[in-house]
Amino acid sequence: xxxxxxxxxxxxxxxxxxxxxxxxxxxxxxxxxxxxxxxxxxxxxxxxxxxxxxxxxxxxxxxxxxxxxxxxxxxxxxxxxxxxxxxxxxxxxxxxxxxxxx
Length: 102
Known about the structure:
Strand content: 5-15%
Structural class: mainly alpha
Number of helices: 3
Distance between the termini: 32 Å
Number of strands: 2
């Protein structure tokens, strides 16, 4: 993926995300700083490749972010790890009778 050294946000948050005790984290950084990589690595670090059941769910507030997570982060990291079955699903919901259905 071309990482040489962690960005500032990654340097600060990755130890908090990857090492117990796992706590909720809210972080803010500029676009392109590696925030998505941080939470994806955190999520994938807890996946047991021997367990053949869903283990992680990532809900994104926008379609653009969902596409970014699926296309860029998960697929690149999954390709490198190649250790478990990965089935991305992009569901953007739909409108029916003026109600938003997920």
